[in-house]
Amino acid sequence: MKPNYLTPRLTFSLILPTVTTSPTPTNKGALCDCYIVSGPEPGYFTNHHFWDFRNIPLPNLNQPTQNQNPLSQNATLRLTQTPFITDWFPQTWAKTGTQEYLPITNAQSNVFFARNPTPQQPQNPTYLLLQATRLPTYVSTAEIELRARNIFHCSLRVRMRLMSKETVLGEATTTNARQHPQAEKDIAQDKHSTKSHRPKQYQHPADQNIVPKGACVGLFTYQSKTCESDIEILTADPPNVIHYSNQPDYDPVSDTAIPGAGSIVNLSAPWTGWVTHRLDWFPGLSR
């Protein structure tokens, strides 16, 4: 009989920093050989792995960041250039377009480490980004997949947030003053001043992280088209709405959702900020 192996995947269509974990050990000692997760049906696991992307050596990490593009090649590091490639590998598959949808292409260059744009967190200087860019004729996007193929069940945690490119860059100029209220006031004052000056720069408040519509961010375990569990975020939704589903959740014949296969939930915190997402795949149960 063929084993029902699972393949955890992380697929994103926007810039996305992540910290990925699996079940937390009940004992950090060397003799610990069993792990339990919290919840009404606590699952027991024989393996635990933690991937921490928050402090990765980057080119020029300790140099001043003023006037430096944090997404430039000399300031970032591809996932394929790090030991994480042993466990995770970026996808390169592509999908043709239709009359309604643009073609999409996954690229390894869209998965990389960059400097944390939040200076208030010096203990976490880096993060992993999975980036998508809407181009005139196609969408360049990113997906990473776990290499392990002997997973029967799992409890997955991913700490992440969705960000616009402007938020990742961490600043805006007066050329886009509407993104910062103080900028409009300064421009109005400058109209009555003859003093020569350079354009001012403004930090983006967290609540001004406006993510473009049209993308889907997904965390999922996958064995087949009829054996899959997903966490999905649609950027066209309000920033606290998230989708949980077991596949298939849609009947193409009747053009209706399959009852009980999916749920739409309101989060207590928006996905534009840091949120830890959890997916448990247990025998006969996903949650």
Automatic annotation (TrEMBL):
Biased composition (Basic and acidic residues): 181-193
Start and end residues of each stretch annotated as Disordered: 172-205
CDD domains for this protein: Glyco_hydrolase_16
Signal peptide residues on this chain, from the entry's feature table: 1-21
Chain segments annotated as transmembrane: none
Keyword vocabulary terms for this entry: Signal
Domain of life according to the entry: Eukaryota
Protein's name according to its UniProt entry: Uncharacterized protein
Provenance organism: Petromyces alliaceus (Aspergillus alliaceus)
